[in-house]
Amino acid sequence: MTDDRPNSAAPPNPAPAPSGAGPATAPPWPRQPHGDADSSRDGGLRSWLGRHSGTMLSGVTVLLLLAFVGVVGVAVLVSIPQADGRRVVFPTISPPAGEPAETSAPPPAAAGPFDGTPAAAFPQGPAGIVLPAPKRTGPFTEKQVAAALAKVRTAVVTARLDRRFMTTADPEPLIRQFARDARADLRKDFASDTFAAFATRLAPGARLTADQPRVKGRVSYRATKDADGIRILAVTTNFVWAYALETSSTGPGDGLVVVHDTVVWSVPHPDDVERGSNGLWIEDADSYAANIDCAAFDKGLLDLGRPGSGGPDDPDPDAVFDPDQALDLPDTC
Predict the structure, then answer these.
(1) How many other C-beta atoms lie within 10 A of the C-beta of residue 151?
(2) In Å, how far from its chain's centre is CA 65?
(3) First CA to last CA across the chain, in angstroms?
(4) Disulfide engineering: 206 pairs with which of 125, 172, 202, 275, CB 3.0-4.6 Å?
């Protein structure tokens, strides 16, 4: 199912918020354009549609998958229209244009909950987040590119790997890393469920083991412009995150929740925007989660689903661990 839902003058009044779940519509940031320019049971895939209006925070699409390593599930995909009425069509996963860097840290020896799954060969935690070498790109200097990449990496580590952030109700440690004008929309995301496209929060009762999450993916960047001619550095992250949760089940992967996300982070050129808009934004985010509790994920929260025997519509169990796998997987929730 689908449901519509990240000039020098003062910004206009916000447009009315759309009905239904999802982030509320927010005014565009102040800009100075450059002159050149229902099932509550476990199982099933649930779809959300979300939209951030404005140029740099255009949308969040969440894809949720409950099907992996002996777990029956279903999936639901939600598409998000952009502010100009066009629907966001997220491409199949392929290396985007720009300077790339892929996870290359040597993986630790497989142990415990990751045994018998592809995640056993993934690096642990932040070691899996490898940044490309910063280079002068379009109007952005090497120093500006390096600073933008560092901002993105810090935000990603907080959003997906910081245990305190994942287990407490306060999203501010992440939100304050963004441009001041981006924060109001992000707070609305965390008041709904759409934050799950770019951040991890655990459901009450869900407990991580002592094992660090396993991470595999890549980061790339490129210089571009938005529709209003604002010059931006777009940093695309594409990662698979495997979390080990406490469980009494003993099958390979039974204690793992897997999240695959692709997020486009945007940093405008400082000469093109007001000070409050200078900094980090989220332009697009798309994700799915596997082996999860559907009712918990209705709230954007992660918990383990119930083990099952699999089904004919389930994808290859290893596919959910592959960062090159398209996010358009079968609905199973």
Answers:
(1) 18
(2) 14
(3) 10
(4) 202
- Pick the closest to residue 235 from 326, 156, 126 (CA basis): 156
* Alpha-carbon 248 to chain mean position: 29
Contact status, residue 48 vs residue 21, Cβ threshold 8 Å: yes
pLDDT tens digits, 198-233: 999 999 999 999 999 999 999 999 999 999 999 999
Q: How high is the pLDDT of residue 124?
A: 97
Assign 3-class secondary structure to the chain. Answer: CCCCCCCCCCCCCCCCCCCCCCCCCCCCCCECCCCCCCCCCCCCCCEEEECCCCCCCCCEEEEEECCCCCCCCCEEECCCECCCCCECCCCCCCCCCCEEEECCCCCCCCCHHHCCCHHHHCCEHHHHCCCCCCCCECCECHHHHHHHHHHHHHHHHHHHHCHHHHHCCCCHHHHCCCCHHHHHHHHHHHHCCHHHHCCCCECCCCCECCCCCEEEEEEEEEEEECCCCCEEEEEEEEEEEEEEECCCCCCCCCCEEEEEEEEEEEEECCCCECHHHCCCEEEEEEEEEECECHHHHCCCCECECCCCCCCCCCCCHHHHHCCCCCCCCCCCC
Torsion of CA 78, 82, 86, 91, to 10 degrees: -60
The token duo for 146 is 């390096």
- Report the relative pairing of strands 256-268 and 231-244 from DSSP bridges: antiparallel
CA 140 to chain centre: 25
Distance CA 296, CA 159 (A): 18
Please tell me the least confidently modeled range out of 15-24, 111-120, 124-133, 270-279.
15-24
Contact 255, 247 (CB under 8 A): yes
**Single pTM value for the model:** 0.72
Give me the residues paired with residue 81 across strands. Answer: 87
pLDDT digits (tens, 9 = 90+) for 7-38: 333 333 223 233 333 333 333 444 443 444 33
Please check whether residue 291 is in contact with residue 73, taking contact to mean a CB–CB distance below 8 angstroms: yes
